[in-house]
Amino acid sequence: MLGRSLLAAIAALAGLSAAIQVRVPEPWRVAILFQPVVLKCNYDTSATQPPTIIWKYKSFCRDRILDAFSPSSTDNQINDQLQQADPNYNPYVNCPDNSRTVRTVASKMGNAVTLGSDYQGRKVTIINDADLSMEQTAWGDGGVYYCSVAAFQDPSGITEGYVELLVL
GO cellular component annotations, sorted alphabetically (predicted)? Predict the structure, then answer.
């Protein structure tokens, strides 16, 4: 895999503008309560300036644990039908933000990492280029984590990916 700086140099020499490509290599993670977890987020960009990284938390649309204990419920049967009609439909992720908790976990500009207000005092940070590291998971950490990458010089492409985290 070409490094971002080499990719940017090649694109600049060729006069090309490549789009951001965000990839989440592990879209589903399980963590044990109070244990560390790293949510990985990879990206490629032709931008020469470091992009801004933002990790957001969104609560699950439905309770995964409750669904696991009542697989024959009417809601589960409806969700199964929706998934058959649209394989990209995810009943735990696809719902309006106003029907669930949404908060910023952390953002990174250059080397500076800023934590959202709900994460102040916790050992949470962005490591490597864009990976979210939590030294101790807590009960409220289970949900969907969105990694967004924004570069002024490279505004198009796939700028976001998500990881579902289940804390046991």
Answer: plasma membrane; tricellular tight junction
